[in-house]
Design a protein that fits this description.
- By secondary structure, the protein is α+β, with helices and mostly antiparallel strands.
- The chain has 2 domains: 2-243, no CATH class; 251-409, Pleckstrin-homology domain (PH domain)/Phosphotyrosine-binding domain (PTB) (PH-domain like, Roll).
- 54% of the residues lie in helices and 11% in strands.
- The protein has 14 helices and 9 strands.
- Helix 12 (290-301) packs antiparallel against helix 13 (304-331).
Length: 410
């Protein structure tokens, strides 16, 4: 396992933007071929085989799931920083500001900051996809003449194959270097498939009982044109530069040359032991409160034992998530003290997370808490600068950091 540092251009320039245009132009034939592959069998099914609305809805329903999975895979590797956050309170939210990524084998780096957005997209899909599935089932049952299983299976294969090719192209042509997680996950495309594809066609079928073939031809033609216009089957091409790309100086460039005068590590073991402590509070707050409610329903309608097992599993899942979350967020941080700076460096991602000029520090102190009497590890150190506080959790030697900072500043 190797790590990857995150470098962004110091200033925007026309050469960077023109590179995006060249990427879009160079793979245009491939994008056209993928769009045709995904829509050809569907188009033939509607025009030649006279498919019903039910058959078309099955295709769109499957494609919504395939697009979401493809976006989730691509989103993990997107290098550009996302411009906004996703659904709050979901796992990975605390990683939004993490810099750098971790590579596994021959694959490009996975960026922890993208995981929150990816999970938000999957969470939304888990809510809407079963609802859309129930609509599809009703449409299929009401379709006259049944569903052509053979040609429908071929169409589904075409949809899946086109997106698999798209994922391969994403890595082969290094598109991940130019995209943010928002570009890699096409939420608007999936929403369009749900609302216009599934919802629109079902409403038409419900009103008129049988949708005219001409309407279905128009629907499939519009779908093909959308796939062509949006590039790789609904995914953005060459995302716009994020605010991080306009930064005058990256954190890496602010790190002084040479070795630090002192390095203070995080007590990772104590940090991870204390991580599950907030699990009971998390389980009573949304969105996690649905887990004990679900366990209660299981206990009420199935058996008390089943409810207890469900609640125990949910508690273990949330506690495990807390341990992983805290470990990635803080467990690998070390604080490097230089003559004029202090740098928070992540040894897992091998990337500096932030740096503070020592001349801007107004106060550095150990923040004692009543919880220090019962939780493992040392108290939190707070570094206060102009209008900002940096909290250093569970340091192995907090007093040593405070003393060396005060002694050096005298």
């Amino acid at each position: 396992m190797s790590s990857h540092e995150n470098h962004f251009p110091a200033k925007f320039n026309l050469e960077t933007e023109w590179r995006y245009v060249r990427v879009i132009q160079s793979d245009a034939p491939t994008r056209v071929a993928k769009a045709i592959l995904a829509n050809f069998v569907v188009f033939v099914g509607v025009v030649v085989l006279e498919w019903s609305v039910g058959a078309l809805l099955v295709i769109y329903w499957v494609e919504a799931a395939v697009v979401t999975v493809r976006g989730a895979v691509q989103g993990l590797f997107a290098q550009r920083q996302p411009e906004d956050t996703a659904i709050t309170s979901l796992p990975g939210q605390s990683w939004d500001e993490k810099r750098g990524g971790v590579s596994f084998g021959p694959f490009p780096p996975v960026y922890p900051r993208n995981i929150h957005v990816v999970l938000s997209g999957l969470f939304a899909m888990l809510i809407f996809w079963p609802i859309a599935g129930s609509i599809v089932v009703v449409a299929v049952e009401s379709s006259s003449g049944g569903i052509p299983a053979g040609s429908l299976a071929l169409a589904v294969f075409g949809v899946i194959a086109s997106h698999v090719i798209g994922i391969g192209e994403y890595f082969w042509t290094t598109q991940y270097a130019d995209w943010s997680v928002r570009s890699a996950m096409s939420g608007s495309y999936v929403l369009g498939v749900f609302v216009l594809g599934i919802g629109g066609l079902y409403a038409l079928d419900a009103i008129g009982q049988t949708a005219p073939v001409g309407i279905l031809i128009v629907a499939t033609t519009v779908k093909l044109l959308v796939d062509l216009s949006r590039g790789a089957l609904g995914f953005g091409l060459g995302s716009s530069l994020s605010p991080a790309d306009w930064a005058d100086e990256s954190v890496e460039r602010q790190v002084p040359d040479g070795d630090p005068i002192a390095v203070f590590e995080t007590d990772r073991r104590s940090l991870l032991i204390r991580a599950p402590g907030l699990t009971p509070l998390i389980l009573i707050a949304p969105p996690y409160a649905i887990l004990p409610l679900f366990a209660g329903v299981i206990g009420l309608f199935v058996s008390t034992q089943a409810g207890v097992v469900t609640l125990s599993a949910a508690t273990a899942l949330v506690a495990g998530g807390r341990v992983i979350g805290v470990d990635v967020e803080r467990g690998h941080l070390e604080y490097q003290v230089y003559p004029h700076q202090i740098v928070a460096y992540d040894t897992l991602l091998e990337t500096p997370q932030w740096t503070v000029q020592r001349k801007t520090i107004e106060k550095i102190a150990i923040n004692s808490s009543i919880c220090d009497l019962i939780r493992p590890g040392a108290p939190t150190v707070i570094i206060s600068t102009y209008g900002d506080d940096r909290r250093l959790y569970a340091l192995a030697c907090p007093r040593g950091l405070v003393n060396i900072m005060r002694d050096e500043d005298r």
